[in-house]
Amino acid sequence: MAAYVFGHTNPDSDSIVGAISLAYLKSQIGEECIPTRQGEISPETQFILNKFGYELPLLKTEYAGEDVYIVDYSDLAQAPKDILEANIKGIVDHHKLGDITTSAPLECWIRPVGSSNTVIKEMYDYYAVDIPKNIAGMMLCAILSDTVIYKSPTCTRNDTKACKELAEIAGIEDVKALGMEMFLVKSAVQGATPRELTTRDYKDFDMGGKKVGVGQLEVVDLSVFDNMKDDLFADLKALKDEGNRHTTMLLLTDIMEEGSQLLVVSDDDSLIERAFDVKLENSQVWLPKVLSRKKQVIPFVEKVFA
Length: 306
Description:
Elements: E1 3-6, H1 13-28, E2 33-37, H2 43-51, E3 58-59, E4 67-71, E5 87-93, E6 107-110, H3 116-127, H4 133-146, H5 157-170, H6 175-186, H7 194-198, E7 202-207, E8 210-219, H8 229-242, E9 247-254, E10 259-266, H9 269-276, E11 284-288, H10 293-296, H11 298-305
Helix pairs in contact: 1-3, 1-4, 2-6, 3-4, 4-5, 4-6, 9-11
């Protein structure tokens, strides 16, 4: 019986490519695996799949009774509803350890690097498995996306080393040009609905028993949101109410200016103000040098909710 490999509920490029790259690796070492996804993909991820000629993984949201590997998360809030009824054979991630537990031993590769695909590249090296050219190109893009073309504070030497080696395999000469091409696609927000934008790269977290949702949109010019703020705030409020959340937030990240405009809808704004030692004005604030949700946002918000 084949095992399924998939990322978090609202998949980003790292989780989609991670499912593909890990499933291929596992299949090469004798364990048949099928890459899947829990939700719809972003324009950036579609760009990556198109550029390297790879098909979209199967949409699958129920896994009870199945063998599974999970990629790019270990939190129940980002998992299928029936994940505890599945046989979790392994976790590959680059985030903090979450609250998913298992009843049997499992394979765990969790490393403090900028991308799950960096960890998977190290797994390929460990098992001495060659990476196909198209998968190497997709893995390169996933790492560039998660590390914001090396600008994120989450970026490590392991990430840049992996990118250099993956670029050689994929035949990519100008890595940063590829990254900018990808981020220009990511910046194309015109025509998308507010819900598509607030949930494009969105994660729920359990913080001290409260549900907190945080989305992020990374663009090369923040002015694309000038006429969208009211609609984004309205959808954040709707998202908060629909999910009985305490707080919903959206990071509008400018990768050129290297900072983020934080939009907040919360039952208690003071918690968010304490988290970042700021004063919200019209429920928003500019956070200079903040590029990483994982490292520069979530830990500070969790601390005040705890």
